[in-house]
Specification:
The protein is α+β, with helices and mostly antiparallel strands. About 45% of the residues lie in helices and about 20% in strands.
Amino acid sequence: MPPDPQPRLAQSSALREAGVPVSIHPLPGRDRWARVRTWNLGCGAVLVDAAGTGVSVGRDRGGGVSRLTVAAVSPGDWTFTQYGHTVTPTRSEPTLILIDHTAPHDFRRRDVGTAVSITLDRTAVVIQPADVPEAARHLCDSPALHDLIVCSLVDLADIAAHSPSALPALVDPTVDLVRALLLGSLGRRPDDPRADLIDSIRTYIDAHLGETELGPTKVAAAHHISVRHLHSVWSATGTTLGEHISRRRLDEARDTLLDSRNRHLTIAAVAQRHGFVDATHFTRRFRDAYGVTPGRLRRDRLARAP
C-alpha cells in the first residue's frame, strides 16, 4: 500500500475550497490511502481525479449546497447510497453515479480504485430539484451516452494533467453532455435542455431589465455558463441577446408610458427605470421601434384618456 500522500482533513478542505462540498473519512478496520487532484474549469465547474481505498465520502457538514456531481467510478468493491437507493458496480468498466449535494449521501470504497468527476451548479444543467432522485436512478438507461460520458471524463482528467491550457475550450461541451445525460435519464429529448435554458434566460432578463449593467457577461454568470456558450444557445432564437434585452426594455417602457398612473414620471425617469442610461439614446431607440417618440406617445394616450 503506498503511503497516504495527503492528510484526510487537507483533502476535504481542498475539495470544499474547489467547490466540491464533501468530507472524507476512513473506513473502520481498513488501511486508508487516498490521492485527490482538482481543476477549476470555470463557470462553477470543477474536475476531480481521485484514487484510493478504505475511505468513506459524505456530504460536508455545511450541506445544503445546490450542486451536483457526476462521477465515473472504476469497478471494484464500492457502494454509493442516496435517497434510499444504493448503487454497486455491475460491470467491468467504470460506472456513473450522480451525487446531489443538498441531501445526505454515502460513498464507500473498500479496495483500491479511481474516480473522475465533474461538479457543477444544478442550474447549469437545467434540472429541477425534485427531478434529481429520478435522474440518479436512471443514469445508466442509455448505455451509449453513459459510456460516452465516462470516456469524456477520463480523457478530460488526462488532458488536465498534461495540457491544462486546453481545459477552457472543453468546459461547454462537457456540461452539454452532462445535461443531455440527466435530461435523457428523465425521458426527455436531448434538445430539451437548450430550450429550458433559453426559457430560464428570458425569465432572468425580464427580472433584471432595470439594471444598466445587464448584458451577456451578467446573464452568463447567473446561469454558470460561459459567454460563448450563452451566445451559442441564444442563437437558436434568431436574434442577438443584446437585441432581445433592448426590445424587452422598450416594451416595458412603452407600457409604463401608456399607464396614466405614471404621468408624473419624466421621459428621463422612464428611461432610467428600464435600464437606459441616456434619455436621448432611449428616445431614438423608441422612435425606431414604434415610429413615434416617447413624449408623443404619452401625449396621444393622455389626450384619449377619459
